[in-house]
C-alpha cells in the first residue's frame, strides 16, 4: 500500500530545534508517530521537556539532546548520539532558525555583527549539520533524506529583515546543490518555506484573524502541524523522487501577486461590467 511509504519504522531521524512547542516539537511528534527513533536536539534543555515527556509517556523512542548546532562540537555530538543510541541516521530535519527582534532594520543599517549572527543560526549550521549527517549516511550506504526550513522570506523579498531573507534564500540554494551532489548516494535534500505560522515564540499569535482571512488565499494563519506534515512527507519515502526542491507551505500566499486586492481581484480591474460579472451586482 502506498500509504506505507509514510512509515519510518527502524529509521532514525534527527530533529534539530525540537523544543519550544513550535514547528520543531510538532515535527518530532510527527516522525515519532510514523515510527522513527527521534533524536530531539535543542540548545535550551528545558524547551525539550514537554515534547520528550509526552512522547516517552506514549512509548515512542526519543533521545533528548542539548547541543549548540552552530558549533563543530555540537554537530559531532548530534550525529554521535544518533549513531551510538540507534546505530545510524536516516533523516535530518533542520528546524532551527531565529528571527530575533534586534535583527529587524532598514537594509542600510545592517551591521556585520547582526549579519554574521543571523547567517550562523539560520544558514551556516544547516550546511555543516547536513554535511556531517550526509557523511554518516554515505558511510552507512543507506541513503536518506535531509529537510531544512527556509521561509517565504527566502523565496520572495524580506523587507526590513534582509539578513534573515538572504539566509533563508541561502537554504533554497543549498538544497539544490546538495541534492545534485548527494543524489548519487541516494540522499534527497529539500526545503520547506513556511508562511506565517502561529508558534509560541514567533509572536504570530498576535494578529488580526480578519486580515489573515483577506490576505491568505486559504483564509487563515498556518499551524505548526501544517509544517510538520510537509516535513513528514519530505523525510519519508512518500517523496522518494523529490529532491532539490523548496516546498512553500503558506496557504497560497507566495503565489498571490501583490497587485491582487483583498478579495483577490486585480487592483487594475476597474471596469464595473467585469467586476459585476465576477462578483455579482453591488449590494452597497
Ligand atoms: N513561525 C513562523 O511564522 C515561521 C515562518 C517561516 C519560517 N519559519 C522557520 O521555521 C523554523 C521554526 O520556527 P519556530 O517559530 O517554530 O521557531 P522556534 O523558536 O519555536 O524553534 C526553534 C528552536 O530552535 C532552537 N535553537 C535555536 N538556536 C539553536 C542552536 N544554536 N542549537 C540548537 N537549537 C537551537 C530554539 O531553542 C527553539 O526551540 C525556523 O527556522 C523559522 O525561521 C518560521
Automatic annotation (TrEMBL):
The UniProt annotation puts the region (Disordered) at 200-220
UniProt KW Oxidoreductase keyword: yes
Q: Which UniProt keywords apply?
A: Oxidoreductase
- PROSITE patterns, A to Z: ADH_SHORT
Query: Which GO molecular function annotations are given, in alphabetical order?
Result: oxidoreductase activity
InterPro entries reported for this sequence: NAD(P)-bd_dom_sf, Sc_DH/Rdtase_CS, SDR_fam
The UniProt entry's sequence similarity note says: Belongs to the short-chain dehydrogenases/reductases (SDR) family.
Protein name according to UniProt: Unannotated protein
Task: Tell me what organism the protein belongs to.
Answer: freshwater metagenome
Amino acid at each position: 500500500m502506498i500509504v506505507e511509504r509514510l512509515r519510518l519504522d527502524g529509521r532514525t531521524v534527527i530533529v534539530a530545534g525540537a523544543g519550544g512547542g513550535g514547528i520543531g516539537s510538532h515535527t518530532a511528534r510527527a516522525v515519532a508517530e510514523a515510527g522513527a527513533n527521534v533524536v530531539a536536539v535543542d540548545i535550551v534543555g528545558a524547551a525539550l521537556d514537554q515534547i520528550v515527556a509526552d512522547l516517552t509517556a506514549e512509548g515512542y523512542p526519543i533521545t533528548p539532546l542539548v547541543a549548540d548546532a552552530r558549533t563543530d562540537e555540537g554537530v559531532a555530538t548530534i550525529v554521535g548520539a544518533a549513531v551510538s543510541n540507534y546505530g545510524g541516521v536516516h533523516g535530518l530535519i533542520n528546524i532551527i532558525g531565529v528571527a530575533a527582534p534586534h535583527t529587524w532594520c532598514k537594509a542600510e543599517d545592517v551591521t556585520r555583527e547582526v549579519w554574521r549572527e543571523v547567517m550562523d543560526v539560520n544558514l551556516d549550521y544547516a550546511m555543516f549539520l547536513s554535511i556531517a549527517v550526509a557523511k554518516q549516511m554515505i558511510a552507512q550506504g543507506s541513503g536518506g533524506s535531509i529537510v531544512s526550513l527556509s521561509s517565504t522570506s527566502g523565496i520572495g523579498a524580506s523587507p526590513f529583515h534582509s539578513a534573515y531573507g538572504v539566509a533563508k534564500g541561502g537554504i533554497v540554494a543549498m538544497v539544490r546543490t546538495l541534492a545534485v551532489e548527494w543524489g548519487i548516494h541516494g540522499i534527497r535534500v529539500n526545503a520547506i518555506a513556511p508562511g506565517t505560522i502561529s508558534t509560541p515564540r514567533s509572536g504570530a499569535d498576535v494578529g488580526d484573524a480578519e486580515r489573515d482571512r483577506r490576505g491568505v488565499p486559504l483564509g487563515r494563519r498556518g499551524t505548526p502541524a501544517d509544517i510538520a506534515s510537509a516535513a513528514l512527507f519530505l523525510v519519508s519515502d512518500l517523496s522518494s523522487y523529490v529532491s532539490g526542491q523548496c516546498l512553500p507551505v503558506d496557504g497560497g500566499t507566495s503565489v498571490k501577486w501583490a497587485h491582487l486586492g483583498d478579495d483577490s481581484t486585480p487592483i487594475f480591474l476597474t471596469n464595473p461590467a467585469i467586476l459585476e460579472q465576477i462578483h455579482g451586482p453591488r449590494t452597497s
